[in-house]
Amino acid sequence: MESDVKVSIVGDNLELSREQWREKRVMVSNYPGLLEEVLKYTWTCTAGSHPYIRCEKLNHYLHYFVLAFLYGKDKLDTMLQSNTIIEHLDNNGLNCTYENLHILSSDENKAKALTIDKQKKDYTRAPVFITDVFYSHTRKYFQMQLTYNENVVWNMRTGRPIEQIIIQYGTFTDLFSDWLIVAKHHDGRFDFSKFRGNCMHYKDRPLIELKPEEKDAAIIERDGKHFARLNPHAGTKSAWIEKTPYINLENLEE
Questions:
Q1: pLDDT tens, residue order, the chain (254 aa)
Q2: pTM to 2 decimal places
Q3: Strand intervals (E) in the chain
């Protein structure tokens, strides 16, 4: 039977939608062969405030299915002990991209839920910065990306405001320690010398002089590249970033 799932390409990932899921959208990695396997089965969306996607025939959730495709079912079952779970790092059960999934202990999952996830849910104002966390299954490291909506941190070498800071970690313990600090301080100013990351990358905010016809534009184009104008405090014209994709540092141009 032909699948009724609609598929769209969003960056490096795939967005899936289905009538039964209503307005909900599911994300999976655009990994060779994965989509074809996913579309062989019927997936339903569970009810509740924290939904997941599940296949009754397989008796598995989609996040288990995509990790089993990557590692093999036998190896994944070995990795999943009685006290571990598959964690969605951004706390979105519909985001089943590989970078968003990692195996954590039940205790680590509970600690994250009672601290970072809870504080993020309770914070409703326009954020000075946002935090995205990913896991690389190929390189076996965690990555935290801090992206600033306001100019609050400056690069002392260049004298320019920093747009994004990317930090890589070898263990979840080191990541979680810094993640807690970030989650508790909303001004975006941290003593990065005390962070536990293995390496850190800075990206300066581009400095663009507006043309007269661009004074009300939300998107600015320069040399074929497009830039969003961020202004979290502009009333009805407010604009800020809420989520960023995984940035592979190995692919960045020097």
A1: 568 999 999 999 999 999 999 899 999 999 999 999 999 999 999 988 889 999 999 999 999 999 999 999 999 999 998 899 999 999 999 999 999 999 999 999 999 999 998 877 666 677 899 999 999 999 999 999 999 999 999 999 999 999 999 999 999 999 999 999 999 888 999 999 999 999 999 999 988 888 888 877 878 888 888 888 777 676 666 677 889 999 998 876 44
A2: 0.90
A3: 6-10, 13-17, 26-29, 44-45, 53-55, 60-61, 84-88, 95-96, 101-105, 129-136, 141-148, 154-155, 160-169, 199-204, 219-222, 225-228
